[in-house]
Amino acid sequence: MKFSILLGGAAGQGINTAEQQLLNLMSIKGFYHHSYKDYMSRVRGGTNFTELTLSDQPIHTHHEVLDIIVALTPEVISDQISRLTPEGLLICDVKHPIPEGLSQKVISLDYSQILKTTENPKGISMIILGALAKALSFDEQDLEKLLNPKWAPSVLEKNKQTAYLAYEKSEPFTSLKSVDNSNTLTLSGNHAAALGALSAGISFYAAYPMAPSSSVMNYVSQYEKELNVLVEQVEDEIAAVNAIIGASATGIRAMTSTSGGGFSLMAEGIGLAAVAEVPLVVLDVQRPGPATGMATRTEQSDLNFVLSASQGEFPRIILSFKNVADAFYQTFKAFNLADKYRVPVILLSDQYLADSSSTIPAFDLESLKIKRYLQKEYDEDYIHYDLSTLIQDRACPGLSSIIVMNDSHEHDQYAHVTESAENRIAMNHRRMEKLELIETEMEEPIFNGHPNPEYMLISWGSVTAMTEAAVHMLNEMNIPVASLSFGDLYPLPKKTLEHWKNRNIQWITVEGNYQGQLAQLVARETGHLIQDSILKFDGRQFTPEYIVEAFKELI
Questions:
Q1: What is d(CA 115, CA 158) in angstroms, rounded to the nearest whole number?
Q2: Cis peptide upstream of residue 212 (ω within 30 degrees of 0)
């Protein structure tokens, strides 16, 4: 079962409030759900909407078709009505013009009269909730669960009256079968990433706000006192990356997050961490560029950039998030890898995943083990950059009588600056040879679909859910399609690619960028050229239906 609802209106009309309260109710009622925000970069006005997809199975994607549209402005109707199924429902204001010849069911409510009657001019989100509760055949008592007990008593009472009045004036439309979704969580991608960092034991978080990464800092700061974490909003992204490098050099787990524009400013710091071999974790929540680009839209166009950010050659690790749960586990893993190999680890998310919320299984905390690789017993003969080993427990300055130095110049084993050719060769070998070890820890892409495919779709990050759903739809049409979905991107895991690449298969990359950047990485690392592509770079996320139609056109 899949059922899709769109809540649309202008910024400032309470769409986010309605969404949060509705998600809470759906969790209580026992539905799996996935919500997706589409919003403009403005405080008020414009046309924004949230899509909520309900299911009796775990779900991580929205779909092209809608079962219910709740419109707070006429623009929502004109923009979205073509997506409403023939059996769908439109809930709108009596003042909104209804498209001529509309065959779907319509519930028209007098928004202004309801708000006037309840003396609640800011309660339009309660109209949404009341009308939807009736349309979905929820009990009247369920309205109590739609109200936030933290509201002031006067606000709570007015909102309750508004929701009840909208409920009374609406009609039942459908009844959905819920399931037992106990032992689950409802989180956004950014919230999951923040919890992953906190579970990994961070003590310091520094960042400069930049959409769509800003809420990571907001979530971490909620646990500042409880978990003894210092959260610092610094003056810019240069300060952020340098601050966490300094903290990490002293043995503290630290993190920053930003978007592509902020990561551009961090590039020099990435190089500093690399040559000094200081563990570093940076989350890049992608949005369309270049420059300011589209601040509240989504894209996967930073992969090429983070692969080569900062000058020179040095090892790095790049991990991406496939879904909300993955954001938690990949972030946790990033810290262990950074500490073990003393390299920059760059996490790639995007606006779609950052702002989307999903019902996910409760985290398996028992499986998580923090590995710090810090030297506990100090030896006076300690060598900070030991050429005899690629993995070593490190000492931290200030914790013993040992002098520990980190330097941005080329240096010898003791961090003394030198321009010796022999030393340069030895130190470069020490750093670069870590890539072979790191590659053994990279997880292979997930195979999904037909066991003997004629077509193979490859994707990464948040496009995974859409690609896998599209593969399922194509298999139901008796088209032998499969997919490989990457989470770990660099060093690129190659075993699964090698297994499939010499077969008579048509390869197609599915990516949210113009160039097919994963296909370029695969070609660079394996020599395997992927000629065909389904690409999207309009700032909006794929849907499974979009991929299916593009696939049909391609073949």
A1: 9
A2: yes
pTM of the model: 0.95
Average confidence score pLDDT of the chain: 94
Residue 286 has a pLDDT of 98
Amino acid at 459: S
- Residue 163, pLDDT score: 93
Q: Which residue has the tokens 């300060």?
A: 239
The CA-CA-CA angle for residues 12, 14, 18, to 5°, reads 160
Residue pair 414/427 in contact by the 8 Å Cβ criterion: no
List the beta strands (DSSP E) in 322-422: 344-350, 357-361
Tokens of 530: 């992927």
The token pair at 162 is 């508004």
Q: Is the pLDDT of residue 274 over 90?
A: yes
Q: How many angstroms separate the CA atoms of 15 and 488, rounded?
A: 35
pLDDT digits (tens, 9 = 90+) for 536-545: 999 999 999 9
Question: What are the angstrom distances between the C-alpha of 538 and each of 63, 294, 298, 493?
Answer: 17, 10, 8, 29
Q: At what angle do helices 324-341 and 189-199 cross, to 10 degrees?
A: 40
Sheet holding 184-188, edge to edge: 105-109, 84-93, 66-71, 2-11, 45-55, 32-38, 357-361, 184-188
- At residue 545, φ and ψ (nearest 5 deg) are -65, -35
| Cα–Cα dist 359/331, whole Å | 19
Q: How far is CA 380 from CA 140, 277, 377, in A?
A: 73, 20, 10
CA–CA dist 200, 159 (Å, integer)? 40
Which token pair is 112? 């202004």
Q: Which residues pair with 485 in a beta bridge?
A: 446, 459
Angle at 258 between CA 319 and CA 361, to 5 degrees: 50
C-alpha dihedral, 113 to 114 to 116 to 118, nearest 10°? 160
Spell out the alpha helix ranges (H) of 404-543. Answer: 421-432, 434-439, 463-476, 495-501, 517-526
CB distance 461 to 347 below 8 Å: no
| DSSP one-letter code for 147 | S
CA distance 12 to 472: 38
Asked if 338 and 459 touch (Cβ cutoff 8 Å), the reply is no
pLDDT tens for residues 475-498? 999 999 999 999 999 999 999 999
Two tokens at 389? 């080993």
Which residues are bridge partners to 460 per DSSP? 486
From CA 16, how far away is CA 148, in angstroms rounded? 13
pLDDT in tens, 142-190: 888 888 888 888 888 999 999 999 999 999 999 988 888 889 999 999 9
325-339 per-position pLDDT tens digit: 999 999 999 999 999
The CA-based diameter of the chain, rounded to the nearest angstrom, is 85
CA 197 → CA 212, 217, 335, 380, 511, distances in Å?
Answer: 18, 11, 8, 33, 27
Tens-digit pLDDT profile for residues 338-351: 999 999 999 999 99
How many CB atoms neighbour CB 336 within 10 A? 19
Over its C-alpha atoms, the chain yields an Rg (Å, rounded) of 26
